[in-house]
Write a structure and sequence with these properties.
alpha+beta; 9-stranded antiparallel sheet; 8-stranded parallel sheet; 21% helix
């Protein structure tokens, strides 16, 4: 018999997720009676591994074959903490660690707990926002930009729908220097299309002058790439977005620069004296040389991406604190925030300085970061507001694209991700299905659009901000970089119009629901045999119940009704056909032996969204 403890479940830990300083947390651990336990101690460590505090759990009661121990504690100050248990018995003592969703003696991982300031807030406009990610070179070309000053060599495809040039050169290099000509004016011209989806945040991959088409090899932080246009073109893009209620966030790449840059200048393409050219360069201290000039620290050993010393005073001034810092430069032109590339590789002090300067320049900005795992260190009141939720993405792809998880395993993965962050952050997490760094979801699903529709329904109803990678909504599909970065399809006959309507309708449902943009989250059902997972989102007076049926057979089940509910509305979305039925008001079949539940049916590969409303209760709470 295993010792039972799962920090995601209320019978073991309350409250769920993060704490605030001084907030009381109650722990319960269930230990087999045969262990003969005398005392349980929960040991908390700081992020650096040093001891923080202990909490003692005392015997509470006997429950079947288990002894239940209970203890309470609070944490005095914000921080990221890790904990394990020490179990004292009549025969000695042992440590208890985390092993997946189970426990294990003397080996395993630590449980994690974040304590956040009680006044932690993030921009209200970002709560439940709908994000649209654009890879600027591949979205839309309006005319031809002035290419004066474009770093060479480069090619521009004559045919917008050419395949991306992915083949290496004879010496094995992948140059990423083929362009399609997408530009600021093109994005501006398509702003009505973006707004028509229901988008409220437009996220642009890097736009600064760079050698490559991905532009993560920054050449000049303060100058837009000539192929994209001018500063005036960028400002006009922001104006067009703002006029439609859309905010614009930019990609901040501060882990490394390009070797072909104003600052390093290995190729000699800039008139500056770069760190590669002279040890007297004003940028020399930005970099680490092992044997100047040819042996230096580079990002993941790509010699075209020399790594910067993030806390070098000259670099910090240039990026963050100068009057015309890089940060301030783009905010003043109209940007509304940043997504920090490889944020988990940036020092905490850098994140805090960047966040403080950004909010001083433009208080209502948002700062999110790229991380492929747990962003606990990154998210706090004086660091990031939120992060890219690859934990959500990986769980969705595993369950819905690859059949690699059961419904209950999928639910555990979702709850584990939610437990890492405060609710303020969860409601603003960047919930993606794919990005410029992954294969398209449709590609991972072997082209099965029913699976993509099901995943989109999950994405649009889960806590946070659903993030659409340009073209997903019309059926773009491709493998990982560079195959996922193809040109946007603008030929209406080649677009999947039914899929586009699916996205628009789900976004409309989302925006019309307070519970879907602001509600809490609870697992309602995980039926492994049928491959059905259901969850609820609720605010006072409104609850939305989402039933995701990933199985291949007709499903019949029972679901709960809130006792306060007075009105019902339901939508059944058939992922196989892309059709959506609406029955409003919805009258469920009430079970006579259990009036708090109703019967529901779903065809294979479909979703049911049910909204329960009590208008009087909702109005009372809102007033």
């Amino acid at each position: 018999m295993r010792i039972l403890y799962d920090s995601k479940q209320p019978q073991f830990k309350t409250p769920f997720g993060t704490l605030t300083p001084g907030q009381v947390c109650t722990l319960h651990i269930h230990i087999p009676t045969s262990v003969l336990t005398t005392k349980v101690t929960c040991v908390f460590n700081h992020e650096d591994g040093s001891w923080a505090q202990n909490a003692v759990l005392a015997f509470q009661m006997k429950k079947g074959a288990y002894d239940v121990f209970e203890g309470q504690f609070s944490i005095p100050c914000p921080g990221l903490f890790f904990y394990y248990f020490v179990i004292d018995t009549h025969g000695g003592s042992f440590r208890l660690f985390k092993q997946g969703d189970d426990t294990n003696m003397e080996a395993g991982d630590l449980w994690q707990l974040s304590c956040i300031p009680a006044d932690f807030t993030t921009p209200d406009w970002a709560k439940g926002a709908t994000i649209y990610q654009v890879f600027p070179d591949r979205f839309y070309a309006s005319g031809r930009a002035d290419v004066t000053g474009k770093l060479k060599p480069y090619t521009i495809h004559e045919n917008w729908y050419d395949e991306v040039d992915w083949k290496p050169t004879p010496d094995g290099q992948v140059l990423n220097n083929d362009f399609f000509g997408g530009n600021f004016r093109g994005i501006t011209e398509k702003m009505d299309y973006i707004a028509g989806l229901g988008v409220t945040i437009l996220y642009l991959n890097p736009i600064s002058k760079s050698f490559s088409s991905h532009r993560y090899d920054t050449g000049d932080y303060k100058t837009p790439d000539p192929l994209l246009g001018t500063e005036a073109d960028f400002a006009a893009l922001c104006d067009a977005a703002h006029a439609r209620g859309i905010r614009v966030i930019l990609d901040g790449v501060y882990s490394h620069t390009g070797s072909n840059s104003l600052y390093f200048n290995r190729e000699g393409a800039f008139p500056s004296v770069g760190a590669y050219n002279s040890k007297e360069s004003p940028y020399y201290s930005w970099y680490t040389f092992y044997n100047w000039p040819n042996v230096y620290h580079s990002w993941w050993d790509f010699d075209t991406l020399p790594t910067v010393n993030k806390m070098d005073p000259a670099f910090v001034r240039y990026i963050i604190t100068d009057e015309d810092s890089v940060l301030a430069h783009w905010l003043r032109l109209g940007a509304d925030g940043y997504r920090l590339d490889v944020a988990d590789e940036l020092p905490t002090a850098f994140l805090e300085a960047f966040a403080a300067a950004m909010r001083a320049c433009k208080p209502d900005c948002i700062l999110l970061g790229e991380t492929w795992g747990d962003a606990g260190r990154l998210v706090s009141a004086n660091r990031l507001d939120s992060a890219m939720n690859y934990l959500f993405r990986d769980a969705a792809a595993a369950w819905l694209a690859k059949d690699a998880l059961s419904a209950s395993e999928f639910g555990c993965r979702l709850n584990r991700a939610l437990a890492l962050y405060p609710n303020e952050t969860n409601l603003r997490m960047y919930n993606l299905l794919d990005s410029h760094d992954t294969a398209r979801f449709l590609y991972e699903a072997d082209g099965d659009k029913a699976r993509l529709r099901l995943a989109t329904a999950l994405q649009m109803t889960f806590p946070g901000s659903p993030a659409i990678f340009y073209g997903d909504e019309i059926g773009l599909s491709g493998p990982n970089d560079p195959g996922c970065r193809m040109a946007m399809q603008w030929d209406a006959e080649q677009q999947d119009e039914r899929l586009l309507r699916w996205y628009r309708r789900l976004i409309q449902l989302r925006l019309a629901s307070d519970s879907l943009t602001d509600g809490d989250f609870h697992t309602v059902l995980a039926d492994d045999a049928a491959n059905v997972y259901a969850f609820s989102r609720a605010v006072p007076g409104e609850q939305t119940l989402v039933v995701l049926h990933a199985g291949t057979a007709h499903w019949h089940g029972q679901l709960p009704i809130p006792d306060w509910a007075r009105e019902f509305a339901a939508w059944t979305l058939c992922c196989q056909t892309g059709g959506m039925t609406e029955d409003d008001p919805f009258h469920p079949t009430i079970l006579t032996d259990d009036p708090g539940r109703f019967e529901a049916e779903l065809p294979a590969r479909s979703v049911k969204i049910i909204r329960f409303i009590n208008k009087k209760l909702k109005e009372k709470v809102q007033s």
